[in-house]
């Protein structure tokens, strides 16, 4: 592990020195002033090869650092560092071909340049990392579930607020806040939240249905519809939280375990505000 970290530091330091490659290529600019059109075009083409190689290696290094920092990540779709080192090899081959009559030395020099570049800047990640890890998959599934719940409850809040009643809007927003705090507290263990998926989906469907019933009855009897809506909504919220508490109590004998999780979640959110 220590050797791997040392190698990464060396590669990162090499990538930081990429601009020096352009300084090393400055003598090629002399070809521009030789007066020959062929020399001018050749110098511009080779300088563009080098600039392209430096750009690709720099972008590949950024992708490498993001890959290393992530717990799970897909390999880069395009191996930019490998392509950049290949371009350096092509550049050295072209430069050497003008100085040798035999093709073998330029080929060997181009391969050597590519290998040295690979040693200096490293290779791109060639495989996905952590995507088949059960913990990672559970985290992504729990995150998706929480996002769906938040979106569904926000949609209900929007629909209710369109009716123009501040009281039922405030009640709906309160239920949204309570529900999301409960889910975030349970989400500290993704598996615990995933186990709650079926009752959560059922809860969201019932809440959306109550919003639909409220909208339909609003024209004929807004007060009666609002009263029934608030009563049912709070009953649904209490039932959902009660079910979550029962599931939590089966996992631990501590009857205050969920309250503790809720308190911790609230303190963490307030600390970030």
TrEMBL record:
UniProt entry keywords in alphabetical sequence: Membrane, Transmembrane, Transmembrane helix
Transmembrane parts of this sequence: 15-33, 39-58, 78-97, 103-121
Tagged with keyword Transmembrane helix: yes
Presence of the UniProt keyword Membrane in the record: yes
Domain of life: Bacteria
Protein name: 5-bromo-4-chloroindolyl phosphate hydrolysis protein
Gene source species: Roseivivax halodurans JCM 10272
């Amino acid at each position: 592990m220590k050797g791997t970290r040392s190698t990464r530091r060396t590669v990162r330091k090499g990538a930081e020195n990429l601009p020096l490659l352009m300084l090393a290529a400055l003598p090629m600019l002399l070809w521009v002033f030789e007066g020959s059109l062929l020399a001018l075009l050749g110098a511009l083409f080779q300088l563009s090869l080098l600039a392209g190689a430096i750009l690709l290696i720099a972008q590949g290094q950024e992708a490498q650092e993001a890959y290393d920092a992530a717990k799970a990540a897909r390999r880069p779709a395009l191996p930019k560092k490998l392509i950049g080192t290949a371009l350096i090899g092509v550049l050295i081959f072209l430069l050497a071909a003008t100085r040798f009559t035999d093709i073998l030395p330029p080929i060997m020099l181009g391969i050597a340049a590519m290998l040295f570049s690979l040693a200096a800047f490293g290779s791109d990640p060639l495989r996905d990392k952590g995507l088949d890890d059960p913990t990672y998959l559970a985290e992504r599934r729990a995150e998706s579930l929480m996002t769906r719940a938040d979106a569904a409850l926000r949609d209900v809040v929007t629909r209710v607020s369109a009716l123009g009643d501040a009281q039922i809007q405030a009640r709906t927003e309160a239920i949204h806040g309570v529900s999301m705090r409960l889910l975030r507290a349970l989400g500290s263990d993704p598996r615990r939240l995933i186990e709650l998926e079926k009752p959560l989906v059922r809860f969201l469907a019932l809440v959306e249905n109550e919003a639909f019933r409220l909208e339909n009855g609003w024209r004929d009897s807004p007060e009666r519809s609002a009263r029934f809506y608030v009563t049912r909504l709070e009953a649904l919220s209490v039932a959902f939280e009660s079910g979550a508490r029962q599931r939590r109590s089966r996992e631990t004998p501590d009857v205050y375990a969920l309250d503790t999780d809720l308190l911790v979640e609230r303190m963490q959110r307030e600390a970030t505000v």
